[in-house]
Design brief:
The complex is a heterodimer of chains A (344) and B (261).
Chain A lengths: L1 H29 L7 H12 L8 H36 L11 H15 L9 H24 L3 H25 L2 H12 L7 H20 L1 H8 L2 H6 L4 H23 L5 H13 L3 H25 L8 H19 L6
Helix pairs in contact in A: 1-2, 1-3, 1-13, 2-3, 3-8, 3-11, 3-12, 3-13, 4-5, 4-6, 4-7, 4-11, 5-6, 5-11, 8-11, 8-13, 12-13, 12-14, 13-14
Chain B lengths: L1 E12 L2 E12 L3 E5 L6 H8 L6 E6 L3 E2 L5 H7 E4 L11 H6 L12 H13 L15 H14 L4 E5 L7 H17 L3 E5 L3 H7 L2 E6 L2 E6 L1 H4 L2 H8 L1 E6 L6 E7 L6
Parallel strand pairs in B: 3-8, 3-9, 6-7, 7-8
Antiparallel strand pairs in B: 1-2, 1-4, 4-5, 9-10, 11-12
Helix pairs in contact in B: 4-5, 5-6
The chains are: A mainly alpha (344), B alpha/beta (261).
């Protein structure tokens, strides 16, 4: 039947994206100051899983496993998380301009990090100070937005307005900290805010992957409800959806993903906005497919951006946050100019 | 069997009372139309019945179950709602829009039975040719039919329609209401609709409920209810009512604004 073809096309797109990620990951791991071939990379990866079947050298094993692979995986999971969070936000807020950062999350994270860098103050001590602060302030911002919006009813409008208020509050406080901070501290804050994958490690990859995968699955469980919200709150209610709960719960999941990504990477913009748009143009607006497909597209974009950022001015490594915008904007404008229909 | 019993129903927005102590019964397999001037509470009553709004008083469904004690999902299986107009922010195809009506029944996966249901309803409402078009590209009449198909996919006992003819031309108005009436007479479903056009209401309804300022002014069959006196006191309009057709026909003559109603 025609419908199964229609669904088949979406599944095909998802499979192709997955294959694209595997290929690109291999390519990304070959690029760097020590040159190794894609075959050597894949062999080194497989050698750990099937020792004996695949042979590799110590040198290549070290480069792949200790230097490059965790960064590649970090790019994949961070890109996936930001894109899924963005797709969910656009769905529950019914707003094409929504992104993971719409509700003031980015400025809250920046404030948390600045507080740690400039004042050395925070909720957790030691090496997790900046990370912990960024995470906690992000979640704090989400809860405040929810609290404010509750007074007037949880609608997209109330949430966006509350989010904007929170965003300005935290950016004002960040500016204040920067004003009183020493110049090298301010430099560190600015660098943190640009977003980079340079601080990746296997532990961090593990945390981001776990949170992203679990939250993505939960969001996908609510796909039908998010679809129904798109038809309007009243219609969604008439279809049996508990509108306010779904909106708040999905917002919290999206915030949780975003918080756990950006506390390690800094604010990597653009992925969460543009990946869902690109995906929607291909697979359409059904969140059962849109959410996972967006995640894969986000992973591809961030991995590509990080690979370019690492190599284009090597040995200088650009922050990936700058790269995502440079790569994404022209592509986005191209799609936007040639589109046939209104996607919103 | 009685489908819906509404007892002492009131609803206020803040201190403004919209519905005031309504009592209405919706019977089996009937078309019941709510008529009355703007602001008389027609749409509000529809939304209260579907629990989109939370009223005071009792609404009993399905042989005496209290609406408030049911879950949204259970209500969605009993009542299908066709909104006045929908501005879908997200793009969806016609097929996916109608498939959404299966939400109260299905899990995450779409079964063959769900798809069969959707196809059946698309055929019934003659929208199958647009199945993979975007919902937003359709005309007003087509959208209306898609939304009715979606509500019917819920397999409801009652269909609520909020001004089903407001965006349609004459031909589509007749077609939409013909469809609703045919479904009601063919199946066990009852329909409750808010409607402005008295002549359409008279022609397609079994029962009229005249609302004025949130109160029930009169309930009855179209022939006995659509009189000069009722129209004057509800709408403040001087009208001629012709009775030589099988249904009454109202010709509004002039507004009585300023005069004693």
């Amino acid at each position: 039947m025609e419908y199964s073809q229609f669904v088949g096309r979406k599944v095909l797109f998802i499979l192709l994206s997955m294959a694209g990620i595997v290929v690109l990951a291999g390519v990304a791991a070959t690029l760097g100051s020590a040159s190794i071939t894609p075959t050597e990379v894949y062999t080194a990866i497989l050698a750990r899983f099937f020792p004996g079947t695949f042979e590799t050298t110590n040198f290549i094993d070290t480069i792949v496993w200790q230097l490059r692979l965790h960064r590649v995986l970090m790019a994949i999971f961070a890109g996936m998380g930001l894109a899924v969070a963005g797709a969910a936000m656009q769905g529950i807020l019914k707003n094409p301009l929504a992104s993971p950062f719409t509700l003031g999350i980015a400025s809250a994270a920046s404030f948390g990090a600045s507080l740690a860098i400039i004042m050395g103050a925070g909720f957790v001590a030691g090496q997790w100070l900046i990370v912990g602060n960024a995470f906690i302030f992000t979640m704090l911002a989400s809860i405040t937005v929810y609290g404010l919006a509750r007074y007037k009813g949880i609608t997209p409008e109330t949430m966006i307005l509350a989010g904007i208020a929170i965003m300005y509050l935290f950016s004002a406080m960040t500016s204040f900290l920067q004003y009183v901070g020493k110049s090298e501290q301010v430099h560190e804050v600015v660098f943190w805010m640009m977003g980079s994958l340079g601080r990746s490690s296997w532990d961090k990859v593990g945390i981001i992957a776990l949170v992203t995968v679990v939250c993505t699955l939960l969001l996908m469980y609510y796909s039908w409800d998010i679809n129904a919200l798109g038809a309007g709150d009243e219609t969604a209610k008439s279809l049996g959806v508990n509108v306010e709960f779904v909106r708040v719960f999905c917002m919290m999941l999206a915030s949780l993903i975003t918080a756990s990504v950006i506390c390690f990477t800094g604010t990597i913009g653009f992925i969460g906005l543009v990946a869902p748009h690109i995906t929607r143009m291909v697979v359409g607006g059904d969140h059962r497919f849109l959410l996972p497909a967006s995640g894969l597209v986000g992973a591809l974009i961030l991995l590509a951006a990080d690979t370019v950022a690492r190599t284009i001015f090597a040995p200088v490594i650009l922050p990936v946050g700058i790269m995502t915008a440079f790569l994404g904007v022209p592509f986005f404008i191209y799609l936007f100019l040639r589109r046939r229909k209104d996607y919103w | 069997m009685v489908k819906i019993t509404i007892k002492d129903l009131s609803f206020s927005y803040g201190s403004r009372k919209i519905l005031d102590d309504l009592n209405v019964v919706v019977g089996d397999s009937e078309v019941l139309s709510l008529v009355g001037p703007n602001g008389s509470g027609k749409t509000t009553l529809i939304k209260c019945i579907d629990r989109i709004l939370k009223p005071k008083g009792t609404i009993l469904l399905d042989g005496g179950k209290d609406l408030q004690s049911l879950s949204r999902q259970e209500v969605a299986r009993y009542i299908g709602y066709v909104p006045q107009s929908t501005t879908s922010a997200l793009t969806t195809t016609v097929f996916d829009t109608i498939l959404m009506g299966r939400r109260p029944h299905m899990g995450w996966r779409v079964t063959d039975e769900d798809i069969d249901r959707v196809v059946e309803m698309m055929k019934l409402l003659h929208v199958e040719e647009f199945a993979l078009k975007d919902f937003s590209e359709l005309s007003g009449g087509q959208k209306q039919r898609v939304l009715i198909a979606r509500a019917l996919c819920q397999e409801p006992e009652v269909l609520l329609l909020d001004e089903p003819t407001s965006n349609l031309d004459v031909k589509h108005q007749l077609e939409a209401l013909d469809t609703v009436r045919a479904i009601v007479k063919k199946t066990d479903i009852s329909a409750v609709m808010a409607i402005h056009d008295l002549n359409l209401a008279a022609r397609y309804s079994d029962t009229l409920v005249m609302l004025k300022e949130g109160k029930v002014h009169a309930i009855g069959d179209p022939l006995s209810l659509l009189t000069k006196e009722n129209i004057r006191s509800i709408f403040g309009v001087e009208a001629a009512v012709m009775r030589d057709l099988d249904r009454p026909y109202v010709v509004p003559l002039r507004s009585l604004s300023g005069e004693a109603l």
